[in-house]
Write a structure and sequence with these properties.
heterodimer, A: about 375 residues, alpha/beta, Rossmann fold, eight-stranded mixed β-sheet, five-stranded mixed β-sheet, about 40% helix, B: about 280 residues, 9 helices, 9 strands, globular, binds thiamine diphosphate, binds iron/sulfur cluster, binds magnesium ion
Amino acid sequence: MRNIKPAVLTGEHFMNGDYACAEGALACGCRFFAGYPITPATEISEKMSRRMPEVGGIFIQMEDEMASMNAILGASWAGVKSMTATSGPGFSLMMENFGLGIMMEVPCVLVNIQRGGPSTGLPTLVGQQDMMQARWGSHGDYEVIALTPSSPQEMFDFTIKAFNLSEKYRLPVLLMSDEIVGHMTEKIVIPKEKDIKIVNRKKPEKYTDKYLMYKADKDLVPPMANAGEGYKVITTGLTHDEKGYPAMNAEAQEKLIKRLCDKILKNKADIIETQERETEDAEIIVVAYGSPARSALSAVKLARKEGIKAGLLRLITVWPFPDEKILEVANKAKTIIVPEINRGQIVREVERCSHDKCHVISLPKLGDIHTPYEILKVIKEVNK
Amino acid sequence: MSMNEIHPMDKLIRADRMPHIWCSGCGLGTNFTCYLTAMEKSGLDLDKCVIVSGIGCTGRIPGYTNIDSFHTTHGRAIPFALGLKLANPELTVTVFSGDGDLFAIGGNHFIHAARRNVDINIICVNNFNYGMTGGQFGPTTPLDAITTTSPYGNYEHPFNLVDLAAASGAVYVARWTSIHVRRLTKSIQEALLKKGFTFIEIISPCPTNYGRRNKLGDGLDEMKYYREHSIIKHGINPKEADLSFNGEIVVGKFVDIDKPTFLDNQPDMSQMSVNNKK
Ligand SMILES: Cc1ncc(C[n+]2csc(CCOP(=O)(O)OP(=O)(O)O)c2C)c(N)n1
Ligand code: SF4
Ligand SMILES: [Mg+2]
């Protein structure tokens, strides 16, 4: 007889990032997973196919990523926390209905274990080349939330955080991981069920004729009625009014899009998380996210050993971008170095936000992670 | 009609959204009424009935329906509906969309949902063209038909939708036209109550775009044509359910079988023990 494991695997494990992501989702109540196999995210699907039946959830392997994204939107409207996981080529296909999720305000989580692109690119090797696609990949104007884990533990923790943010602000939240973090195996600690903080979507009052689908509260987020609860849900990808009715005019467009953006922008203080190491007196600050943040931390430690005043600002939330935090460190430091596994994407944001207060250096690398020594070398050159 | 008179369908439509966007003579109003009547007659709890569409003239139907309604993106109604159904099996989920939406951009989703036998109902309004975008040819446009993107006559072979549905695994397959109000209503009612993936094709006039360019007259003329040229052939092999440009229209119920659904086939975990140790 096979044993069934519970949803929350409290305890210590030796686990890769992809599996940790799946366990994080299950631990916070995700009970619907739809995906299409793609390296390096496939292990998430595989884990979900084994685990979902154990916890009474649904695993479905869809015919493509457009279908996967739509299926999780539908499942979320049925009141079930839902997730999909992919990599570059699939991420491109998901962009269409990621936009629908933004427009209909659907809580769910989209995981991207980034590999090298464009196109089929480097299926088995790391990339951070989809960071701007995460921000702008679907058409139209909108704000997103994207988190960047650096370890299997964070794959677990940030998946839960992503679900919580998606439920709180009613949008698909992006977990922008990368191949190194997804495939790396490390110790992870899964807390007791009662110690896991879970946020659930706001529900409307009992149905009355006055119930309006998209009338937002003070926090700019409308309470969400699920299908099957008697609210007569009406929702569309078209621009709509508070009733959820299509409204084809400039005023409605202005009002809706502004609210969709403001619900993120006005709550930045609640959403954004960054981490700092040795930045207090630092003259040279490395700004990093995802797997390169690990090399960056080693580089900073090595630099400190040599008496160089170096520090690390790690971005946990890349979108919305921590503009104020970047300006704050730009005011302190002489130089900011931004190592990324792309040709320099987030460095543009860093430059924009540092308002010429300091020198910003891009440290691009393709297909592989920077070694600590590669980052240290630049720190030392700057320090000369 | 005076303001305080209530239309029998008022409970089922969002009356405050009227007038609708459809052209006069369009078949969609009739098709919509058949669906509403079927839903009412089915005895289903309306709070558990859900309607989903993609984009197009047909795709506007959910927005007028006074139940949980979802107007998704072009071609994606089926996977969205699948998500709703699998996440909450209590729901009766119906996709109501156009031929282009379901079989061009959304064709892959259709065949796979049918293959999986997901318990959802698909109603396709086949008006032989892309109505909403101004009448281009699509995957069901007959050979030689004139559309805005086939000005010399369509040179692509069309799908036989009922054959495609049956071959893909649908457990219920029927075709009617907008004139078959009674039979279509009954068919929708059967589909709503049937377990598994059901498919109903409605041949429907689009006088504005398709009818006009192909000299089929107005909406009423098209309806007359359907009445004169359709023949009921229940139970025939859907491969032989002909649908030619100027010839006969074979209608009827072609498939009505039972087989386990996607949810029926989920692994049975009840025989396994729960291990709470790590
Ligand atoms: C991705 C995408 N491509 C194109 C369109 C434009 N478009 C809107 S409706 C439609 C065709 C609808 O045809 P059909 O499904 O047959 O519905 P009908 O209007 O005939 O009822 C198209 C191509 C779109 N909305 N989205
Ligand atoms: S364009 Fe055709 S399908 Fe669309 S509403 Fe008009 S008649 Fe109906
Ligand atoms: Mg059409």
